[in-house]
Amino acid sequence: MELLTCCVLLALGCLLYFVVQFVRLMKADADLTLLWAESFGSSPESKLRGSVVWVTGASSGIGEELCYQLVKLGASVVLSARREAELLRVKKKCLEISSLEEKDLLVIPLDLTDLSTHKSATDKVIQHFGRIDILVNNGGRSQRSLFVDTDLNVFQGLMELNYIGTVSITKHVLPHMIERKKGKIVTISSITGLVGVPLSTGYAASKHALQGFFNSLRIELGTYPDIAVINICPGPVQSKVVENACTERFEKSVEAHTDQTYKMPTDRCVRLILVSAANDLKEVWISDQPYLIIYYICQYAPTWGFWILQRSGQKRIQNFKSGIDADSSFAFSKKTS
Ligand SMILES: NC(=O)c1ccc[n+]([C@@H]2O[C@H](COP(=O)([O-])OP(=O)(O)OC[C@H]3O[C@@H](n4cnc5c(N)ncnc54)[C@H](OP(=O)(O)O)[C@@H]3O)[C@@H](O)[C@H]2O)c1
To answer: What would the pLDDT profile of 162-181 be if each residue is shown by its tens digit?
Structure first.
């Protein structure tokens, strides 16, 4: 009888645990490990203050917001992207919202696809600050086009920008981190680096490549426990990513300005990126529902995951063909920070 009572209590305990985890998951906007770190782990305020952080893609969207939140934390920031005027605009705002001085912010215009410039850019950062504590590989471009309609050079261009460009900057920065036995490499991958997404075959391939590269590099760096390799996988986030996405041709961007308000606010995504960096989390998923639950299903029940992706993917393609943002099929409400 006592054994039976124990078993019933144990079963109830397990059931309660799963119910609690399920409720947490349904309310979550990131994987549960990241949310645990946000509540109980190290805060960005305590870990990142005073760091020297190099952000690529700092002229817009996630990279721009990263600069603002970093300077508020008291980090020195190197801002890189192609458009110098936009970088100067971001720098000006950084100075306005923080107590940093001119010398704490360095603008280095940089094209990720122009590999020949990456060494001199890295040298300039080291010369100015003497070190790089954190590299944020953020610059990149997405894609909105069906494979059958798309020029081959789109696939080449996306690999050169999102993958080779990122590997190249990392190749120049890592030796400095190895020398100091310390540093963090934060890469803004994507959920499309984990699962397949229609209309983004080339983009998904470039982000899958990043995942494979950094997951392997992390193991190679096992003898440097204080060099962290952190892969960030966001779902849809408010930014210019759709507007700037390439189409059937690499040079041609999406023409329509689509409503982004139902996506995760940029500042929430960036706060979670900083929590991930402060806690050296290896891979994080940052996304609202219903995407997040779909990623969990894909990870733990891939056969069901493939079925769901197939169904939702058709809706995405229909949206695209009728000229609305492909992701709006999943929109529930507008989101503001
Ligand atoms: N927003 C999302 O839903 C989402 C989801 C998952 C992952 N991501 C990833 O998040 C990262 C940031 O994107 P975002 O959403 O913030 O989009 P965004 O607003 O379009 O910003 C993209 C940034 O990348 C820079 N960039 C583009 N081509 C470049 C090049 N050849 N060389 C150097 N920089 C270049 C752009 O600056 P310039 O044009 O001035 O060069 C811009 O600063 C990307 O890697 C993207 O794949 C975004």
So the answer is: 999 999 999 999 999 999 99
pTM above 0.90, yes or no: yes
Chain CA centroid to CA 158, Å: 16
The phi and psi torsions of 188 (rounded to 5 degrees) equal -85, 95
Is residue 220 within 8 A of residue 262, CB to CB? The reply is no
Per-residue burial over 56-68, b = 16 or more CB atoms within 10 Å of its CB, e = otherwise: bbbbbbbbbbbbb
Report the candidate in 132, 124, 129, 237 with the shortest Cα–Cα distance to residue 175: 132
Q: Listing from the earlier edge strand, what are the strands of the sheet with 134-137? A: 105-107, 76-80, 52-56, 134-137, 183-188, 227-234, 283-286
Best probe residue, ligand 1, of 241, 253, 283 (max atoms within 8 Å of C-beta)? 241
Q: Secondary structure of the chain: what % helix, strand, coil (to 5)?
A: 55, 10, 30
Q: Can you give the C-alpha Rg of the chain in angstroms?
A: 21
| CA–CA separation, 336 and 28 (whole Å) | 16
Q: Which two tokens stand for residue 116?
A: 């020949």
Residue with tokens 């603008």: 107
Residue of 188, 195, 232 to mutate, ligand 1, most atoms within 8 A of C-beta:
188
Measured in Å, residue 62 CA sits from the centre of ligand 1 at: 7
